[in-house]
Every structure is written in structure tokens, then in C-alpha cells.
Amino acid sequence: MDAPKPRVIKDFEKLDTHIQEQIKLAFPYGFSEDLIHFYNKEGKKVSALPFETDEKYYMVRMTVAEAKAIIEDDDDFDDDGNLRDSIKDDYENKYSDVSYMSDYIGDEESDDDEDA
């Protein structure tokens, strides 16, 4: 039986750059709609972005307003809040050997209303 992964609760700004980049790649349209809510050890309701790597399970603490501000203030995202194609390509190449990224990449929303 595998040991459970360590759980890390951290603010986005305090994460290592490589984790921040992988999160941006996993959520190229922003984070605000992917936040979940839970109660911390003090019983306070907290919102966070769940993100899992091979080594750890992250709960990236942020409010909806903070999630939107991160995207607005980050030059990696365009004015519409989407990860720039050139940045996305760079990150995909940089993290192409990261196996879990395939769980996130390709989950892009489609504007197509056609049935397959």
C-alpha cells in the first residue's frame, strides 16, 4: 500500500516558481471557477485551488477575488485572462516529462456546441 501524499496548504505567492508555472499550465483560463471550500483546523471556511503532483497534494489558498487578481496582474495571461500561447508552449515544453500534467492538459473548455 502506498503512503498517502503529503498535503500542503500554501498561498500561491509562496509556492516555488516551478509549481506556479505548472498550475498556470493546468488552469490556462484562470483559477477562480476551480476553487473548492473546506474548513481549516480552526473551523474557518477557506477557499483553495486543488493541485496534485507526483509528490504532493496542494491546496493553494486563495479567494475568488485573489484568484482573479493573480491572473490580472500576471503578464503570462492576456487581457481576457487566458494563458498566452507562447507561454503555454514554453511551459508545455518545460514540463513535458511531468507525468501528471496530462491529467490537466487537454481539459480545455470548448466553445463548440456540436455533438461528436
Q: Gist?
A:
The chain has 116 residues and is of the alpha+beta class. It is 26% helix and 19% strand.
Describe this structure in words.
The chain is of the alpha+beta class. The chain has one domain (7-102). The protein has 3 helices and 4 strands, in the order βαβββαα. It has helices at 17-26, 64-73, 85-94, and strands spanning 7-11, 36-39, 45-52, 57-61. A 4-stranded mixed beta sheet has the order 1-4-3-2, with no helix packed on it. Strand 2 and strand 3 (45-52) form a beta hairpin. The radius of gyration is 15 Å and the shape is flat. The model is unreliable at 105-116 (pLDDT under 50).
Which tags fit this structure?
116 residues, alpha+beta, four-stranded mixed beta sheet, disordered C terminus
Q: Distance between termini?
A: 40 Å
Radius of gyration: 15 Å
User: Which range best describes the helical content: under 10%, 10-25%, 25-40%, 40-55%, 55-70% or over 70%?
Assistant: 25-40%
Number of helices in the DSSP assignment: 3
Structural class by sheet pairing and helices:
alpha+beta
Question: Mean pLDDT, nearest integer?
Answer: 85
Low-confidence stretches: 105-116
- In percent, how much strand structure appears in the residues? 15-25%
Tally the beta strands: 4
Strand order of the largest sheet: 1-4-3-2
Largest β sheet strand count, sense and barrel closure: 4 strands, mixed
Which descriptor suits the 3D outline?
flat
Sketch the topology as an H/E string, one letter per element: EHEEEHH
Q: How many domains would you count in the coordinates?
A: 1
SSE layout and pairing:
Elements: E1 7-11, H1 17-26, E2 36-39, E3 45-52, E4 57-61, H2 64-73, H3 85-94
